[in-house]
Write a structure and sequence with these properties.
67% helix; elongated; Arc Repressor Mutant, subunit A; 2 domains; mainly alpha; 233 residues
Length: 233
């Protein structure tokens, strides 16, 4: 089965959802903007039903707010949102480490070390895309081993909100280097069999908004205008 036929098997609402997410990812649909359903449906050559279904899913994931008979607003990402997301992700990843701990063996630890090495190599070459992909793979090792698909889905969705809305071209090298050091600390705790310390570390350091706040405020757009991001639309 070729790629085209695989895509054709997807439901229309799934294709519309992926289209809208990609537009957000590349920055063509910006936070704080409005989505005109009539115009979008006409542009895509579809009825409003699959578009509405896709927007409902995006609303459930926190990307948009649907105002009945009024408008669809693309949600902004405030520092308070980021703080809340960090708290949730930290708690869930901490739980995932505890659940996955008996399954994290020598091979998994070796893979985590190798991914962290690749992250360091990538960031030294200013290759943030490779760094980002390996960073997700690093965390996914224990997330997937947790065996809780709902936990994984929630964490994945929140990370999309943090990193892909839109995906920024800039990065803060100091932050990524600090993250690599934190990864090494986490791997050491796991290697030493210190389950609770590893779980606490991922929650209280790696995903602590207070610990990461200085980097968060540098990386994300200004939200000082009553919690609204200042975009030039």
């Amino acid at each position: 089965m070729n790629e085209t036929s695989i895509l054709n098997l997807k439901s229309l609402k799934e294709q519309v959802y992926e289209y809208l997410r990609e537009q957000m990812h590349v920055g063509k649909i910006r936070p704080g903007s409005l989505i005109n359903m009539d115009q979008t449906a006409k542009q895509l050559g579809i009825s409003k039903t699959p578009l509405r279904d896709a927007l409902i899913r995006l609303e459930m994931e926190g990307f948009v707010t649907i105002l009945p008979r009024r408008a669809v607003i693309v949600n902004i990402l405030t520092h308070q949102d980021i703080k809340d997301y960090y708290q949730i992700i930290g708690a869930l990843e901490s739980s995932a480490i505890i659940s996955a701990f008996p399954k994290i063996k020598t091979n998994e630890i070796k893979t985590m070390k190798e991914l962290n090495r690749k992250m360091k190599y990538a960031i030294n070459r200013d290759d943030f895309a490779t760094y980002y992909d390996n960073n997700l793979k690093f965390h996914n090792i224990y997330l997937d081993l947790s065996g809780n698909r709902y936990l994984v889905k929630t964490v994945t969705t929140l990370k999309k909100r943090l990193y892909d809305f839109p995906r920024q071209k800039k990065y803060i090298k100091e932050w990524e280097e600090a993250s690599i050091i934190e990864h090494a600390t986490l791997v050491k705790l796991i290697s030493d069999g210190k389950m609770q310390e590893a779980a606490n570390f991922i929650r209280d350091v790696h995903w602590s908004f207070e610990v990461q706040k200085k980097f968060v405020k540098k990386y994300y757009p200004d939200t000082s205008n009553n919690g609204k991001i200042k975009y030039k639309l």
